[in-house]
Amino acid sequence: MSVKKTTSKIVLLSIVGASLGGLGMHSYRATHTMQRELASSPVSSSKWRPLPLGKHLATINTEIEKLESIPDSSDQEVTLTGYVYVRQQLFSDVEYKWVLPPEVKIVSGQISDGLANTKSGDVIKVQISVTGFSKEMQSTVTLTASTSQDGIPVGSSSVISSKPEETWDGVAQEMKKSAEEQLQENAVKVK
Amino acid sequence: MINSLVLALLGGLSFLFLTACTPFTADFGSSSPAATEPEYKGTPTDYSGTNPIYIKVLAKYKYRTTAFDISSPAAMGLRSTTAERGIPHCEFHVYDSAGNRIQQGETDEDGYAAFAIPRTQGTYSLKVYSRALNDYIKVSVLADIYSNEPYAITKNFTLNTGNINSGTTVGSPYTGFTTFYAEADEAVSSNIEGGAFNILYDVYLANEYIRNQTGRTTLVSNWWVANKVTAYWKAGFNPYTYISSGSTSGVSFYSQGTNNLFILGGISGNVRTADTDHFDDSIILHEYAHFLEDNYGNSQSPGGSHDGNFIIDARLAWSEGWANYFQSAVLSDTDDVPNTDRPKYYIDTYGYKTSDGDTSGGIGVVFNLAQAAASATKDNISLSTPASEGNFREVSISRTLYKSSRNSAQVYTGTKYGGGISFTEIWKTFSGELSSMTQSLSNTSAFPLPSIGAFNYFLNLNTAVSDKTKWNAVLTEEKQPVDASEFGQVVTSKVASCTRSITGTADSFMAGDSLPRSNHLKNNDFLVFYYNGNGSTINLNATQTVAPTVSSYQMDLDLYVYYLSYVYFEEAYIDAGYKSQYLAKYKRTPASTSMNESISMSGLPSGYYMINVKLNSLDKITNEVNGTVTYDLKIGSNFLCP
Fold this sequence. Notes:
heterodimer; A: Immunoglobulin-like; 10 strands; B: alpha+beta; 4 domains; 18% helix
C-alpha cells in the first residue's frame, strides 16, 4: 500500500479524551412491556440514547462535524471538519479522502492524505475549506478513511448534506412525531 | 444524480420537492396522512369456473454483489456489479386498466407469480410487493413509519389476439411475458427496490435455515415459521435519525419489544459512498437474530458500546454474540466448515466499488468466526486470558457458537475440530422449542438474565453428543464457562454458608473513551436474588485474605442492588453525582471504616434483583487492588448461596 507520509498542517493528530461511549447501537430499548416480564423489571427503559458514531466493531469510524450554518451562496467558503476515530490497534497507516461532487471545489486543505503511527484511541481531525457547498443546491460530501486489518482493507465513511432539511434524515424526527400523533388518533377512533 | 434521488425518495410521501430551486416543505402530512400498513391480500380469487386465462410471470430482484476473497483484498467490498434472484413467496396483485384489483396471490419459491384472470383482452398490471405473510415467511419491508407502505415492482402486460387463447389450464399457463425486476442500481431505479427484496430474502433464508436445521419441514404436522417482523428501510435514509438528528454516519438496529427492524439505506440520500446495509446480509441477519431473541429467547441486552476488544456486560455480549453467530450459521447453510471465505465472516460494507481501485467503497467491519482465538484481532483469547473471560466478550461468544456447531469431523482452522453441536440443540437451548422449556434460556426462573455461561449450562444438558471432547476444546480455547457462576447465578436463602472471593484489577478504558470501566469478570460478582418483600436486610461480610501489592491500600468491596432489567452503573458516574433509575440501593462504605456492607430491602417491591458485589477500583492502579478479598452474603441469619 502506498501511503503519503506528509501529514497536512490541518490534520491534527490528537488523543482526545472526549467520550466515544455512545458509539451507536445496533439494538436500542424502546418503551415496551417485556414478553416475560419479571416482578421488579421496570416497564420503561432509559431514555438515554447515545449518539451514533458509526458501526460498533469497526476498526475505524468517521464523522463529519455538523455545520452551525451552511452558506447561502455557492461562492461562499465553508470549512468542513471530519474526525477519524481509531478503534483498534493498527499495524498499517490510515488513509483518508474527501469525496466531493463536481459543484464543490476545494479551496484549502488536503483532499486526501496518509497518517502513520496511529494507535487505538486516537482521534484524527481533518479539515478542508470548500466553495459550492451551499443552500443553493443539494450536495453531499463524503469523508472516507481506511486502513488494513489482518491484510483486509477496512474503512468507514460519513456523509454531510448541504440541505439536510431536504433529506429524509432531516425530517425523520418530525415525521416520526407526526406519525405517532396521527396513528394514535386513528387508534382512538377505532376504539 | 443526488437531486434526482432525493426527488424520487421524497415523492413517495407527497413532498413538494421538484427541483433544487423549489422550496421544500416538510409538511408531509398535508396531502398524505400517516397510515397503518395496508391490509395483506394474498389469497387468490377462484376463477376456475369461468374459463380464465392462466398466466405465469417470473419476478426477480437484483442485488449488488459482495466481493470477499482473502486472496484478493483490493477487490473486497460491495461492488457495482449486480446479480439476481427470484422473489420468493411474496404478495402480488393484478389490476385491470381501470385500477381494479382483480386477482391476488403469492409468488412461489422461485419467484413465479401464477394466477388466473378473466379471459378478456386489455392492459393489466401485475404488482409484486415486499411483503409475505404465509407458511414460509412473515415479513413486511416498509418504506417508513409514516406511510407504512411496502415496495412494489410492476409488470404491465396486454392480453390481445396473439395470446388471449393461451393458458387454458393451470398446468399450461401462458408464459410469454418477460421477467421483471426490482433494481439494485440507483441509476436505474432511485428507490433501489432490490434492497427491500434483499432484506426480505434474508429473512426468508433465516426461516428456511431454522426450519431445515430443526427438521420442521412437514406442513401442518411439523412446520416452523417465525412470527411476523417488520423491516423499515428506505434508500438513502439513515434510520437512526428517527432517534437523533444530525448524524453523518449511520446504523441499523432492532427496536426491542416492537418486532421492528430498521435497516440502514444510506445517509442524506447518498447510496454511493455512504454506508448502506440493504445488501449486507450479515447486518440484516444480525438484526433479525435480535428479533428472534426477542420473540423466542430471553432478550435482556442493556445496549451500550461494544468494540469487540473489551470486556462488556455479559447480557450485551450474549445478545450481540448470538446475532453475529446466527448470520454466519445461516450463510454457511449447513454445519460443514465452508470452503469459501464469505460465510465464515461477519462483513459490513460501506459505499460500493466500481473497480478494485475505487476507494468509494469497502469493508467497514470484518471478522472471522472460525479464527483461532489466540490469533484473533478482535477479542483475542490467549493462554494467559483468565478463565471465563469469554463470558464477557461478544466476538469470542460468536466464535464459540460457530465453532461449537461445526461438523466434528472437520477442522475449522489449523488442527482444531468443530464441536459437533447441532443447530437443533442450539435452538432448543436458545428458545425452549422442540423440548421442555425447562432447559432453555426461555426458562427465566432458572436464569432470569441470559449469558453464554447460562446457555452453555443448558446446552450441556441438552446435547445428545456423547463425546463432548471437541466441544469442550472449543470452550477451553475461547475461555467460556459452562455455568452462570460469573454472571446471573440465582442465589437463595440457605442455612449452609458459601463464600466467594474477588482478586481485582484496575479499571480500563474502551478505545477513545474517557469513562473508567470496572472489569466485569475480576472486580464484580453478579448474583440474582428473588426478594419476597419481607423487608429483610442483605449483609456483605468481607475479609481481605491477600493484601494488594501496594499494601497500604485495603481491598474494599461495595454492595449494589439493581432492579433486574438494569444498566450497569460505573463508579465514576456515582462519584460525579449522577443517579441511576436502575439502581435500587447501594452502599459504598470505605474499607477503612468497615469491610462490611448492609442494605435493607425494605421499601422495595418483591421480585428479582441483581446483587452486584463490586470491588471499589475507581482511580486505582492494579497494584492497589490486586489483593484478594473473601466474602459471604447473608440475609437474616441465612446465607445467600446457589
